Amino acid sequence: MISGFFLIIYMGPVTLIFVMTIQIKCFHEIITIGYRVYHSYELPWFRSLSWYFLICVNYFFYGETVADYFGALVQREEPLQFLARYHRFISFALYLAGFCMFVLSLVKKHYRLQFYMFAWTHVTLLIVVTQSHLVIQNLFEGMIWFIVPISIVICNDIMAYLFGFFFGRTPLIKLSPKKTWEGFIGGFFSTVVFGFFLAYLLSQFQYFVCPVGINSETNGFTVECEPSDIFVMQEYTLPTVVQNTLRQKTVNLYPFQIHSIFLSSFASLIGPFGGFFASGFKRAFKIKDFASTIPGHGGIMDRFDCQYLMATFTHVYIASFVRGPNPSKVLQQLLMLQPEQQLSIFHTLHSHLRDRGILPPATEEKRSD
């Protein structure tokens, strides 16, 4: 598993194939539990409809991402222009087709069971597909936003186990009797330290910090950029108490290291509740594991219950505290406009910059000509 993780890092943006595979497997495991619990193997069309809805939702989410991040590429390809322009209508039409097929498949004496499974499918889509899509969006912001959250969750899981194994005495929660307060606290401090130093290491490399883009010549992924401010070393003044202890007034850090403290804190304090939720789910349906995919670890969902929650938090954190206006995205959106609209925006921007004194006044421009 560790070797596989390093292979994923080496693959770079192509990692989205891995995320898609994980998502499909997690969906399969939860849907299969639904079939077993509600004894719904004989329901007409339902297995096919579950997978059809998965395809529809993925088409919607990934289409939105392509149009958002790679608008310039879409603009150059005429078939993609049509799909991008009517993407939401096409997505809704595909969903409506599945909805109608579900209604037509209703069978007398099985109505309640069929609606149980309809709800089960949609809740599964909400939990699995929506959150795995956020993993992809984090990845496009830079590999570091993908690697660090995943790594700190793994670190917390390992360190909480070790501290609990050697020092654990006090039970933490009834849903997981083996979890202890000692492991919970030890995992927290270990994860914060690990995340802090991992952030320092990765912030030095353009490969990890640059947002994913498209190379217009090769139409392939590219991760070249001028690193943003949060990945540039800065000097910080230490609090007075710390100054007296360390006998040092300032320290040089990457701002991302400070962000990593908040990410690590979430992974340690709130992230485990994703595992507790999964434990409660399995107890509710009297199963030990989601599946037997990974020997000794249970199903894929057993390994990714906390990861999905962490990915959601990372996405919200980036949107709330990190992401600012993205010039490349704005440019991509401008390139998708009609020529007259682009010209109108050009004149408006030109006038705005001239009024602010950034560009010379119109009279000076004429004299220079």
TrEMBL record:
One GO term describing the cellular component: endoplasmic reticulum membrane
UniProt xrefs under Pfam families: CTP_transf_1 (PF01148)
Zinc among keywords: no
EC number: 2.7.7.41
Family matches, as InterPro entries: PC_trans, PC_Trfase_euk
Biological process terms in GO annotation: CDP-diacylglycerol biosynthetic process
Pathway: Phospholipid metabolism; CDP-diacylglycerol biosynthesis; CDP-diacylglycerol from sn-glycerol 3-phosphate: step 3/3; Lipid metabolism
Location of the protein in the cell: Membrane
Family indicated by similarity: Belongs to the CDS family.
The name this protein goes by in its record: Phosphatidate cytidylyltransferase
Taxonomic source organism: Mastacembelus armatus
